[in-house]
Amino acid sequence: MSVAYVSAFDRDERRRSRAASRVEFGDLVLLTISVVAALAIVLAYVGRTRTFELSEGRRHSARIVDLTEVSDPEQLARVLEPLFASAADRRFAARQLLVFLAASDHRQLPNVGALLRVDMPVGAIERERGLVTYTERLRVSRDNAAAAGREPPRALPLFAAADLANLKSSLIVRTRDTFRRTVLLYGTLYILGFHLVAWFWRFRGVHGDRLLL
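Above: the chain sequence. Below: its structure as tokens.
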């Protein structure tokens, strides 16, 4: 009768490997929390799309412009009609916005709120004829700077926060299909990342803390 010799190290490794391959309480907790996380992502997605649909229902006749695709300043000028009574202000704002979109990677705009970062030089306002709103904003900004003892402004925001609040329902930076694909991709990667660690532990026979994971 032959006798197989197994070292103590090998026996310990085998025991660790068998223990790591067993389904434990931590695995069930990880699976349960993953289901809850997936449900939360789905509910957030449904809520966001539902909000968009309600907004569309209230403004079914409004023009909606995709900032990632727009190339005609007239498209933007029409969207800006509720903000500026002067056609000169609308055309000026539309051109300045297109300059910003062309200079930046507008396809990567995180949201419409990023437009609050758009500044325009004071010289551009002074050179443009017929401006009403922007001329008044420049005057107020200069008066405030003088009263506070500061240097006069060299640039002004293209849109104030109140402007953007009125524009949000008319501008988008991604279509619904793009939004759906983004949520699906990153939601899957988010949940899958934790399970990849658990699978790696199981494959390598590592008895990691699955409950902590």
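Strands lie at 65-66, 119-121, 155-157, 171-172.
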